[in-house]
Amino acid sequence: MRREADAVETPDPVDARLAARLAELRAEHGWSLGELAERSGVSRSTLSRAERAEISPTASQLNRLCHVYGRTMSRLLGEVEAEPAPVVRAEEQPVWTDRASGFVRRSVSPPHPALRGELVEGRLAVGADIAYDRPPVAGLEQHVWLLEGVLEVTAQDTVHRLAAGDCLRLRVWGPTRFRCAGDAEARYVLAVVLP
């Protein structure tokens, strides 16, 4: 996804579809930009620019919007993709990059709005640190299986330090934090299950 500095460029097709979907969701709820800003904690100007595809929201901002709309990030991003197929080849799996935080997210599972589970590959650059102030859906079940590197996951004020091969299971009710705690990229599989 694009950053503010790239605002004069033609929007990436996924960014353009995401912008349109965000505008649709707000309209479906009958909210003004100001009302959505109050509900999400994302500034009115950022929301406006994101809905016009002038900027791409960060992972944290997108998470806040998903919380307000009661969707997981994969579901929202899946809604801007083409008709879901039962198989998604590796080269066709959508990849989303938050350059500001050093986070790369690959949607591994074939998207489908009726399914409750999904797989995501996450990669955090050395030193990357992402904090989410709330889950997109309260009580979301997550399984974090670390494939490479060292990852610290903080949930409910408990820090879980994972090494390659470790798997953490948790239900997310409040803030969480994912931090690459080693001297190499952290690569993990995240299994997400809706409550």
Task: Break the fold down into its secondary structure elements and pairings.
Elements: H1 13-29, H2 33-40, H3 44-51, H4 59-69, H5 73-79, E1 95-98, E2 103-107, E3 117-124, E4 129-132, E5 140-148, E6 150-155, E7 158-163, E8 167-172, E9 176-180, E10 186-193
Antiparallel strand pairs: 1-2, 2-3, 3-10, 4-9, 5-8, 5-10, 6-7, 6-9
Helix pairs in contact: 2-3
Tell me about the largest β-sheet.
6 strands, antiparallel
* Beta fraction: 25-35%
Helix content: 25-40%
- Would you identify the regions where 5 or more consecutive residues have pLDDT less than 50? 1-7
Query: What is the overall pLDDT average?
Result: 89
Overall geometry: globular
> What strand line-up does the widest sheet have?
1-2-3-10-5-8
How many strands in all? Answer: 10
Number of helices: 5
| Oligomerization | single chain
Following the backbone from N to C, one meets helices and strands in this order, namely HHHHHEEEEEEEEEE
Judged by helices, strands and strand pairing, the structural class is alpha+beta
Over all CA atoms, what is the radius of gyration? 16 Å
Distance between the termini: 29 Å
Q: What can you see in these coordinates?
A:
- This protein has 195 residues and is of the alpha+beta class.
- It is built from five helices and ten strands.
- The strands form two sheets. Strands 1-2-3-10-5-8 form a six-stranded antiparallel β-sheet, with no helix packed on it. Strands 4-9-6-7 form a four-stranded antiparallel β-sheet.
- A hairpin with a 4-residue loop joins strand 1 (95-98) and strand 2.
- The protein is globular and about 45 Å long.
- Residues 1-7 have low confidence and may be disordered.
